[in-house]
Structure formats: C-alpha cells, structure tokens
Amino acid sequence: MVTASQVQLTVLRGRDDQCGAVRSLLDGVTDGGGALLLHGEPGSGRTALVSYAHRYAAKDCTILAGAGLPEEAMLPYAGLQRLLDPVRDRAAALPEPRRHLLFRALDGEGCPPERRLALSVAVLGLLAAAARERPLLVTMDDVDRGDPQTMQVLAVVARRLRCLPVAVLLTADATATVDGLVTYRLSPLDERDSVAVLTDRLPERPAVPVGAMLAAVGGGNPQALVDLAGVLTPGQWRGEEPLPAAPPADGALGRAYRTRLDRLPADTRRMLLLAALDESDDAATLVRAAGAAGMAIEALAPAEAAGLVRVEPGAVTFTQPLARAMVAAGAPLAQRRAAHRLLAGVLDPHGQRLRRAMHLADATAGADPALAEELERAAAGGRTGWAVASAALCRAAALSDRPLDAAARLLAAARYAWAAGQPGQARLLLDRLRATCADPVVDGHAGLLRGEVDLRCDDATGAAATLVTAARTVAGVDRARALEGLARAGEAVCFAGDQYRYAEVGRRAAELRQRNDPPVVELTGCLVTGVAATLRGDHERAGPALRRAVVLGGRLTGPELTTTALTCAAAAGLVVAVDGAAHRLAERAVGLARERGELSMLSRALELRAVAEYWLGRHEAAAETSRDGLRVARATGQFNCANVHLGMLAVLAAVRADRENCLRRIREIGTTPTPGSRPHALAGWALAVLDLVDGRHAEAANRLASLARLGTGRGQVLVQVMATPYLVEAAAHLPHRPAATAALAAFDRWASSTASPLRRALSARCHALLAPRGGVEAEREFRTALRLHPTEAGAFERARTELLFGQELRRSRRPRDAREHLHRAREAFTLLGVGRWAELATAELRAAGESVGPPDLPAARLLTGQQLRIARLVAEGATNREIAARMFLSTRTVDHHLRNVFHRLGIRSRTELVRAFATEPHAGLASDR
C-alpha cells in the first residue's frame, strides 16, 4: 500500500488531457468508481501518469499500487498477489467460498477456468471492503507485461466499479487493449512540448534549431528527451557541436528496449538490426541480406509477436516511432558495421547507388575520399529525396580528407536540408560550417542560405543585412547567386516594412547586372530593378523591367526552370498587375516545388498564387490556397510565411464579412509579428474592413492610413496600395481625408502605369467616392468604373461598385436610378455567397423605396460549378469519400466546398440539401457532365 503526503504536482508536458482524465476519475470516486487505461510506447509517460495519480489522490484515497513484471509473467496471479497483499486481511468480510477461492489464487494454487468470474467477484468484494473507510485508488503499471491472469481479473473488476468508491488506473503498451474501459493513447509530444521537456532539464533554453532537431531525434517520446538532455554537452545544446542521432543506448529508454530485445532469439535480434539499419523498409532487400547471412526473414516472427515490427509482403515496418533508432543504438559498433556491410553487399550499385554508398559509409572508420565523392555524386540533385541527400552529404563531409571539400559538402547538405523543409537541421549545419571553415566564399554562400532561412522562419530585418553582406562576398565568383540573394534581401525589407532600404538593394543589383546575362540572371535583375523603381514611384522605369521579368519567366525551360525563378517572375507580375500571368507563373512554381519536393519554396509559391487569385476575384480559391500554404509553412517551421498566410486568410474572411473566421485568424497570428511587418499590416487591413462593414468609418480609415507612411518608405507600402480602395471608401464619410487623398494619388500612379482594367476601375471608383456628392463628376467616375470592370473576373469588386453607385444615387435623391444598381449588387452578392454584403444592398433597396424579401434564386445560380456538382452528388446519396474519389479531390476539399454549399443555400444538413435539389429543375441530371 502506498502512503504519501500531499506534494506539489509535477508538470507533465503535453499530457494535459490525460492528467485531466485522471483528475476527473479521482474527483468523482466517492460518487461511484471507474477505470482508465493509458497505453503508449515505452517512455511515453505511463509511469509518470501513475505517479501523478498517486500524488493527486494521496490526501483523500488509500492507494494500492502494483506493476507487471516480465519475470513473473509465467506465474498465474503473481501480480494480483503483490497488489492485494496489503489488504489481504480485509478478506474476512467475504463469504467463505469466495475467500477460499481468492486465497487459493493468491497462494499460487491457481483458479479453474470456470471459476474465473467468481474469483473476479471476490477481488471486487475485497476492494469494496478496503474502500469502506476512505476511497480506494488501484493502479497497475505495465499490466500487460506481467501474468495474463492478473490482467484478465483486473479488466473484469474495472468494468464493475460503478457503485463502489474505487478507481482503477491501468497502463499498458501501445498495442494492448482492454474492452469496455475508457482508454487514452499517449501520443508523441509536439515540438513545443518536446523543447519544454528539454528546457526543464538543461542549464538554459537550447538554441532554436537545436531544440527542433532534438525534438525530432526524440520522436516526441518524453523518456527519450530526458535521456538526451542527460548526455548533451554544453557545445551541443548551444548548437556548436553535432547532435546525437538517437537517444543514448544506456539511458532509461535504451535499457527498456534492451530488456525487450534480450527476450528474443539471437537470429531475431540480428534480423531486427538489419531491418533497423535498412531504412527503406524493403522486404526484398532484407530477404537477400538474410540469405547472405544464412538466415530467413521468418526469424522476425517473435519480434512481430512482441509488437516491435509488422511484416508484410513488400515491407517490414517498425510499429513504434523510436523502436528502429533504439534497436540500432543498442547494438555493439562491430555488429552495426557488419550489418551495414552485409546490406551494402546485396544492393544494386547502379539502381540503389545512394543506399549502397550510405551503408558503406556507415561501415567505414576514418577518411575515405573516394567514398566521399561517390556519396556526393549519388546524392546530387536530391533525386532520392532532399532529406536523404542531405544526410548523405553530411557523411561525405565526415569522410573528406580536405577541409575545403568537407566545407563544400556541409554547405550542400544544409541547402538540401532546407529544400526538404528542415530549417533546424539547415541551421545546425550552417553553424558547424561557420565554426570549422575560414573560406570567405564558402562563408558568403552560407550567409545567403542563412539569410533565406531567417527570412522565412525568424528575423526578416536581420535577414536583409545578412543577405546583402553575403551577396557582396560572393558577387565576384557567382553573380547569379548574388543577385538571387539581393532579391531575397529586397523581399526581407518589404516583409519587415523597411521599404526605404530597398534603394540600397536596387543599387547593388544594378552594379551586378551585365549585358547578355543568361535569362534567369536577367529575370532576377529585372525584378529587383522594377520593384526598386516602383517603390520610389518611378513607374515608367518599373513597368518595362517587371514585364520583362514576366516574359522571361514564361520562357524558362531546362536547368533554368527553377522554383525560385518562377516565384520571382510571379512576384514581378503581381507588382506590374498582370494578374493572369502572375497566377500562371505561381501555379507553375507550386507544381514544380511539389514535383521536386522543395518544401522550403512551396509556401512562398502558394502565397503568390493566393494574392493573384485575390486580384482575379477568386476569393474562395485564394482562401483554399492560403490554407494549403499555412499547412506547409507550419509543417516546415516557416513562421513568417505562416503568419502571412494567416493575414491573407483574415483579409479574405473580412472581405466576405466573415467576422468569426477573420478574428480567429488574427488571434492565431498573435503578438509575434512586429508592428510594420506584413502579417501585422494584413491583420490591420482585415480589422479595418470589418470596421467599414459595421459603419465605423473613422476607425477603418485610421487603421488603413497607419499601414504605411508614404514618402518615408516605412510601413507596408504594397499592402496599403492593395487596401487603398477600402481606405478611400472609409474616408469618403469623413470631413478630412488627407491620408486617403495621398494614398489614392500613389494608387493612381501605379494603376495608370499598368494595363489592368480592374486597377483602373478601382481608381475611378475611388475618385467617384471622393468627388462632391450628387455632382456630375461622381456619376461620371462611377460609370467609368463599371465600364472598366472586367467581365471575366472580379465579380465581387464590380458588385461593390454597383452598391456604392446605388448608395450615391439614392443619397442624391435619385431612388429609381439607384434601384437598378442595387438590384444588380444584391443579386451578385447573393450568388457569391457573401450574405452580409447582400444584406447591405437589401437595406439600401428598402431605403430607396422598394419592398424586398430574401432573394429567391434557384440553387444552381447560388453555387459555383464545383459546388453545384458536389451538391448534386450529395443529393444522389454519395458520401464525401465517394465524391472525392469521383472528382479527384481530397476529402478535406470536399468538406470545405460542402460547408460553403450549406452556407450559400441557408441549410444545415444533407437531408435539407436533398430536399432543396428535389425541387430543382434538372436536379437528377448526371453529375459528371
């Protein structure tokens, strides 16, 4: 029996739900008992949660605690005997037959199979007797590791506690289950909680990339993280030395795995080691390796029965995240090297070149320049995956005999890690490079990569300085990389809101440009030159340069066709307002990044595509693109990119007057972005649109005017240009509007330099709003705007112009003329599914003297083509999964479209949708047309 005083409860990182479940179980025990089963892999925190329960219950409960012992697994009821021994004297309260049966089992004489239920009832009675004075907590840690009879009895008891003040808490391996019990699986910790576990045990918080990498090495396993923290040197947790590749073999987790492995036959352990070292999980390779070693793959059967691996016809996979690493780490070095040589010997030197070279490298001690070159050639271009190629180049660097070769390979490894979406690994490799290499050119190229990582993930202001310095260092030997770095520096100063610094970037780029530059180099130079001219208001110079970049981007083929070049061309297209071309270039960049697995570039390409879709009036598509970009950015640690996507989602929600989603996205951005940065400005724009919708014109104007300080180059000039139509609309209701007038002047200069009908239409609308009310000028400008609005895109902005023109005519005492425009606005808003704007148009119609009810439009007119097709398939009875397969979409995309269908049709269920389409003309037509 455990007795304990009330102590301060230890924080269990990432286990809030499980701790809450334990507290709920114990808080309600006096009103009737219950049971919990916690299961997870070794080291996941099962024992820590049992200790948590003991501490929490110590004041109010008697505690019986036991644990399953593998050494007693063959002794029936051994675990039950140890658990109940402290309260055995309470058995006097049991009827004689039950007491006799209980004592026989506890004394090792067993229990007939037909009497097991009676034995369980006897145990239940004993616990009830022990709980008469105060509630009882019964815990059995690792119940599945002890004798199965104890587990069976406790399971029966745990299902029969409803009327007793007894709580039962069991823990078991991830593969164990007990029917009828509330079960919680202990999932791996996320990166934040993993870093917190490490920080709790280190002298100071580890460097950001170190924390991220250790979290990955630890696999979210709390015990693995504790073991890692115990062996790290100061140089490692500061990021100055290479990190361990796995948790230590002699740590608590390593010992736990070693105990499990020691119970397996020798051939099974050898096969497990081969499977652990061959990370391809290819069963054919293991079959050949087993044959070469005089074994058979069937030797893995005991490991499969123990829940360590799953053997399938084509693959052998480890069922627990860290099992592979712990099997490899626990084997002696000589055995590991022999296994690597064995695997290398059965791999094809041509078709499996990189895998073979990696195994040979892991079997080699000391420098081997020839093998290093082979690794470098096999990994070139990341054909087998950027992460694998990065690991190969790290090994090549270790095998190199010349420092400069090692440095070049480490730099390439960092680039590949970044391409794979592993910024933490890239930074660690760059830090190692800085500590070991004194070559200025290598250091300059490393600075270009470090600046790009900082731009996407961390400090954009510092990234700009890093990139400019690095570009100057490498300019003499690699102008293409230097110009690319300056383009990144320009992006960084724009992100941070320091556009005045773009002039320096532009000057340095101009110094590097030459006649007859290759197309990709010319493209980058045109982008930087064009953006620099745009920011200083020189649109006559900006336009030709930016349009040239767009043309060059469209012509790229072969080796020059890169994701970076396409994103540069797409960015140029957006600045010069050729939205269709920008969208095509961004779409190509997205496709190329996905095809090549360049995760570090994918989020930026999606950002540009979303902005292009915004200008094209495809708001739903833009939101879907931004959601995709947000997922990618978060998965790859690109926090700045994630915040830009959140800001774009907030703007798109605000434009649709979706207050709830807008505010939710702004809350997700939080307070991290600095004032003046792009995410901060996008959030301000979104809030201003909500203010405008609600009639808070002064607040909206103030927010939008503060996005940038024109003439100083500070703030988000480009975001304010995009938001100028909203600024002017808000300011039109105010007596003084100098900020709006200045912003409109800048917008006009830009719009007039483009060939974009939409930009010119918005400019005319803005002038109409600022013109004297009821005058000829206002009407002329509104009609000009309506004439310029493109018919193939931008239905939302055209509807907004119709609404604003209708308002102007009504307030000028021309209600009959106003109604024509307000009707068109109301119908367009209804078709677009933006209910709040449709309500505003309806209110204006009523104010213009027309009695109107809700729009009576058929469903087919309220939905987009994609939504209509999905709705008809639902009406025919198809499930979301069936629709996804039929339309080649993801189920998530189908879910998203279906929510919009419900919103647009004003319904809440699939049943209502079926009814809506039952009255639709042609509702039963084939949906795949």
Can you summarize this structure?
The chain is mainly α.
What this model shows, in words?
- 64% of the residues lie in helices and 4% in strands.
- With 929 residues, it is mainly alpha-helical.
- It has 7 domains: 16-185, Rossmann fold (3-Layer(aba) Sandwich); 191-248; 439-512, no CATH class; 517-637, Tetratricopeptide repeat domain (Serine Threonine Protein Phosphatase 5, Tetratricopeptide repeat, Alpha Horseshoe); 648-736; 756-854, Alpha Horseshoe (Serine Threonine Protein Phosphatase 5, Tetratricopeptide repeat), CATH 1.25.40.10; 859-918, Arc Repressor Mutant, subunit A (Orthogonal Bundle).
- The protein has a 5-stranded parallel beta sheet, with helices on both faces. It has a two-stranded antiparallel sheet with strand order 6-7. Strands 8-9 form a two-stranded antiparallel ribbon.
- It starts with 15 loop residues before the first helix and ends in an 11-residue tail after the last helix.
The N- and C-terminal alpha carbons lie at a distance of 72 Å
Radius of gyration: 34 Å
Q: How many individual helices? A: 47
Named CATH topology of the largest domain: Rossmann fold
- The computed structural class is mainly alpha
What helical percentage do the residues reach? Answer: 55-70%
What's the CATH first level of the largest domain?
Alpha Beta
How much beta, percentage-wise? under 5%
How many structural domains?
7
- For the largest beta sheet, what order do the strands appear in spatially? 2-3-4-1-5
Instruction: Let me know the largest β-sheet.
Output: 5 strands, parallel
User: What is the number of strand segments?
Assistant: 9
CATH superfamily of the largest domain: P-loop containing nucleotide triphosphate hydrolases
